[in-house]
Amino acid sequence: MSSPTTATDAQLARWERFRAGRNAALATEHGWLTLTSFQWLESQPSGVELVPGLWSTDGTTAFLTASAEDGLTVVETGQAVEGTITATLQDEESLMWVQFGGDDGKQVVVELAMRADKYAVRTRDNSSTVLTRFKGVPTYEYNPDWVVQGRFEAYAEPVDVPIGTANPLVDGVHRSVGEVAFRVPGVPHEIRLHAEEEKLGALNVTFHDESNGETTDEWRKVFIPRPRPDGTVVIDFNRAINYPSAFTPYGTCPMPVRGNSLDVRVEAGEKLPQE
């Protein structure tokens, strides 16, 4: 990048509020920093690591069999699990299903998930050291040069693009609604990235850049406010954030679409998390 532009007090204040909200959202109970396992369910009832009871699936429904001594209760109702309970999900759905442990019986929540049309369970333990030692995500200093103007070119219809995820056994799909085109200092050509749609017309762009694996995680994402009527957008790479898979090996986070890369170091936004 060229010599940096000086940020205004208002820009810094907005960014600091964003960072405070981001760190608070990460540090919630049973949030992404509390994941301690990811395990596929088998067809025969069997135990899984870190969780009481016997777990299984017939491919359509998940089954849990437990006794009162196991100390499991249903998250939604607080009812003790005695005997067999069932749940059914669609692909990519998750359910905070049962809980146990700790003084209140709620230290660990077991999340039932359907990924790649298979059932899995993830444990979310509030005593995880990733959470208890968390002091915020390291970031680059705010740099207004990484707030760039661009334009959004919508497709006539969304296009589903196959992608990989943080779990090599789980494939994903990126629903591209169009492309964001922009330029950054130091790169002679226009950069074009696939975008997904978020709530209220905002966009989400998942991308690689030349800093990945050194100062930043293998990929990051940035949310873009809803395009203006003429298609123009503002992309603030200071707000580039990590996916949960940067903090835990138990995520199934989507990778960027092939080619969604900036051939420059994006030295803005979140860095690699501290150990």
Q: What are the defining features of this structure?
A:
single chain, 275 residues, mainly beta, 2 domains, eight-stranded mixed beta sheet, five-stranded antiparallel beta sheet, globular
Instruction: Give the number of DSSP strands.
Output: 17
- Secondary structural class: mainly beta
Characterize the biggest β-sheet.
Answer: 8 strands, mixed
Whole-number mean pLDDT: 95
Distance between the termini: 29 Å
Looking at the structure, what is the overall shape?
Answer: globular
Q: Percent range for helical residues? A: under 10%
How many structural domains are formed by the residues?
Answer: 2
User: Number of helical runs?
Assistant: 2
Subunit organisation of the chains:
single chain
Beta-strand portion reads 35-45%
Q: pLDDT below 50 for ≥5 consecutive residues: which ranges?
A: none
Return Rg in Å: 21 Å
Helix and strand sequence: HEEEEEEEEEHEEEEEEEE
Describe the structure.
The chain is mostly beta strands and 275 residues long. It has 2 domains: 146 residues, no CATH class; 101 residues, no CATH class. Helices cover 8% and strands 39% of the residues. The strands form 3 sheets. Strands 10, 11, 12, 13, 14, 15, 16 and 17 form an 8-stranded mixed sheet that branches. Strand 2 and strand 3 form a beta hairpin. It is globular. The model has no long low-confidence stretch (mean pLDDT 95).
